[in-house]
Amino acid sequence: MQTRLQGIGGMSRKFSGWMTMGAVIGLLLTGCAEDVGVDQHGRTVSAARLDGQWLVINYWAQWCAPCRSEIPQLNELAQQLKGQPVTVLGVNFDGLQGAALTDSAHLLGIDFTVLAQDPAQRWQLPRSEVLPVTYIVDPQGQVRERLLGEQTAAGLLARLSELQGEK
User: Fold this and answer.
1) Nearest to 152 by CA among 72, 59, 61
2) What is the C-alpha separation between 57 and 133, in angstroms, rounded?
3) Within 10 A of 125 (CB to CB), how many other CB atoms are there?
């Protein structure tokens, strides 16, 4: 009987070891799942960086004239919001990746973060066939506003202020 108990104890230690290894792998995979993806420079954009932030998510394309004229306004907005709990993000409508995304963002003079992966599913953003389109997402991850057409830094700041005051 004592031998049998030792055998069970050995199995228990093995099982415990497998559980510990499984937990570590699970934590590692969870950490990977928390990445929003990479930006136009290939740097990881972590969810932790965006948690608790208001997000201004703008979809643009190089062929879209209003998008091109809106970019300086979004750059200005991102500069004005530095140090505040608001992040300006761009998303290329055509799904450019790698060097093509880097080159396009550089050509348009984009200074804010451009996500290589479309975040629509993460924040449940409705697909738009009109460009440019800008979404404002609150710190709880809820879409609060969908703005079609070219936006200004002043207009976006005013809308953000209104939305933040509603809470």
Assistant:
1) 72
2) 8
3) 18
pLDDT digits (tens, 9 = 90+) for 71-127: 999 999 999 999 999 999 999 999 999 999 999 999 999 999 999 999 999 999 998
What lies within 8 Å, CB to CB, of 163 at 6+ separation is 54, 136, 138, 144, 145
Backbone angles phi, psi at 61, to 5 degrees: -145, 150
Q: How far is CA 105 from CA 23, 41, 71, 127, in A?
A: 40, 10, 10, 21
Distance CA 9, CA 7 (A): 5
- Locate 106 and state its tokens: 């550089």
Q: What is the pTM of this model?
A: 0.79
Residue 97 to residue 87: CA distance in whole angstroms: 21
> For the chain, how many helices (H) and strands (E)?
6, 7
